[in-house]
Write a structure and sequence with these properties.
With 97 residues, the protein is an all-beta fold. The chain has one domain: Uncharacterised protein family Atu4866 (Lipocalin, Beta Barrel), CATH 2.40.128.290. 0% of the residues lie in helices and 60% in strands. This is Ligand-binding protein with streptavidin-like fold. InterPro entries: Atu4866-like_sf, Uncharacterised_Atu4866. It comes from Actinocorallia libanotica.
Amino acid sequence: MNTTTNAWKVSMNAQTITTGPHPHVGMWVTADGRIRQELLPTGRYEEARDGRERAYTGRYTVTGDHIDYYDDLGFTATGDVRDGVLYHEHLVLYREH
């Protein structure tokens, strides 16, 4: 993640191609709206729960449609995007439009 240009990088045959923000960047929300998770273009995330802003914060990495989360408190989690839906541990989140 290049934080100065907010771009992500893909390695291909020892070349690095810099493109725009990763397609998974943005706001993801549970169907009931209680949990909101924003994947920032800087490689950081912020998660709000039941109106508590920044309940969880940390960094993330993306490999294809798989997301690895590294929370600032020290724990880790994973997620996978399938058919436009983010499955993050026991949560199901949808893209906010």
